[in-house]
Design goal:
alpha+beta; two-stranded antiparallel sheet; 2 helices; 6 strands; 14% helix; 23% strand; elongated
Length: 104
Amino acid sequence: MSDRITCPECEGHRGQQVGSLFLACQFCGGQGSVGGGNEPAERGDTPPPPLPPAWEHRVWSDPWIAATLGCRLCLGSRRVTHIDEEAGTLVSVPCRCVDKQDAT
């Protein structure tokens, strides 16, 4: 264990504010500092493997779910949203399923 220091990733802010959404820092776990009992290097051997993307989830093998929701990326909303970290905003763009529907 080491002495507590300000988190080098979030600089003690505990995360990032995007509009009304607060995203906790993944390095310090939203504590704002590391060291002592909150030491990332001592949390475990290796992190668990990443989960598959949502559009590859096994729920899509159910024909009712696939037919009801339609697109696996936007879940029928026809828009996809992501976080633009440089601008500090949420960016929403039309889903690629919109082009396919317009073509038919």
